[in-house]
Amino acid sequence: MKPTNKTVEYTLEASEFDWEIRPGKVIRAWGFNGMVPGPVLKAKQGDTLVVKVINNLPEATIVHWHGIRLPASMDGTGEVQKPIEPGETFEYRFTVPDAGTFWYHSHQNETEQMEKGMYGGIVVEAENDPVVDEDRILLIDDMKLAKNNTFKRHGAIGRWMERHDGREGDTLLMNGKEAMTLYMHAGQVERWRIVNAASARYFKLSLQGKPFKVIATDGGLLEAPRTETELLITPGERFDILVGPFDEWEVFHMETLPYNRVTFARPKKHKYATVHVMEKKPSNAFIPEGFTQIPLLAAQDAAVNRKVKMSVGPSLKRGIDFLVNGEMHCQDKPVMVGDLQVWEISNTSLMDHPFHLHGFFFQVLEENGKAPEYKAWKDTYNLKPKSKIKIAWMPDNRPGRWMYHCHILEHHAAGMMAHFEVVDPTAPVLPKQEKLHGCHASTSSL
Ligand code: C2O
Ligand code: CU
To answer: What is the residue with the minimal CA distance to atom 1 of ligand 1?
Structure first.
């Protein structure tokens, strides 16, 4: 497949609608084009995506294109655009320079809008993609519903716990359906692109012990496939896996194993879907031993040029605060286009946080002093309690306002985020001085 550099157009209408998550269980969802998740947007590497977003919700929204290296003005955050008000339309336009699995989601009142279903997948195909018999995108989510299937609201204590743990519910959704069944043919190999679109749930994938091959992460293909039987996928992350070939009439579950991320709620095992293997069909799959070469941006011992600290602290007013460099909604220092960034990110708290950088891929150079097992492009990476990673990323020529944050939506909303500017030093006007110093207290929405 050769790059085509085509323009691919989509319209996404955000609205409120009834969504049946299993026969007879209907919720009042918010989403795109009347479905949860919204439609899968497809393009080939190098194409231009034009997405017209029409907002027919009762409140403003913004759409973020998680993982895509687009211009700052198209990033879909309150930093770079005015919210799309009810009745308004906004046209996003950007090329997709990388192949892989991405996703779009609301970036406005996220704890509510994403919980109600405002997200969808994006698949960008590559020239060197392995040939598979079937390619699917599977978006993992959960909802916390009350008995009458409305979105559960909490009293003060419940709210406090949800602020701490993030919102996890026991309605478990894959592609918007509870207890979903997936049919595949014996003898075939499928690519499953898995996106964790949940507010806070950690998804530790297991196919009841059956091995699968991990072939791609957030930023596309790995150098070579890796055989695993378990795989942790934290909110915001994507992993592509190859499954099969299986024998005829095998039946197994796709489940999440207990993962202790230090919450009030106790970790449990849950079943997400059932896979039924049907009659045997011939396979056209072709999986090379190696996919690509991932050049290292920096050596493991590269000097750190910025430290980012994620922490959780007590607060008189709010009970608990979620902080970056000691501040809520921190304003971080700018970075210059072309200056390699080597950041040490630490999590000094006693719980896990998935760190997400908008608009750029990074490489993990080390985690708690150790080099990672394999090279990968990431935009979201989980930090375990009391741990540290060193990452490298290159601010290419896409100046503007960017951000990074914890992808547990309640933590992000509670302040565990920072804005920063990517500055083109050759541009005639530098951004306003006030935006150029380090973290300081900023107004929060709480
Ligand atoms: Cu998927 Cu700012 O996030
Ligand atoms: Cu967090």
So the answer is: 66
333-374 pLDDT per residue, tens: 999 999 999 999 999 999 999 999 999 999 999 999 999 999
Q: From CA 240, how far away is CA 23, in angstroms rounded?
A: 29
Any ligand 1 atom below 6 A from CB of 167: no
Query: Among residues 95, 138, 433, which one has the least CA distance to residue 273?
Result: 138
The answer, as to whether pTM is greater than 0.90, is yes
* Distance from Cα 405 to the centre of ligand 1, integer Å: 8
Q: CB neighbours of 134 closer than 8 A, spacing ≥ 6?
A: 184, 188, 190, 191
User: Residue 401 burial by CB count (10 A; 0-12/13-18/19+): exposed, middle or buried?
Assistant: buried
Q: How far apart are the first and last CA of the chain?
A: 50
358 Cβ below 6 A of ligand 1: yes
Q: Which atom of ligand 1 is found nearest the CA of 67?
A: 1
Q: Is the CB of 64 under 6 A from ligand 1?
A: yes
**Alpha carbon of 178 to ligand 1 centroid (Å):** 24
Among all bound ligands, the one having the nearest atom to the CA of 410 is 2
> For 264, how many CA atoms within 13 A lie in the half-sphere containing its CB?
12
User: Mind listing the pLDDT tens digit for each residue in 229-276?
Assistant: 999 999 999 999 999 999 999 999 999 999 999 888 889 999 999 999
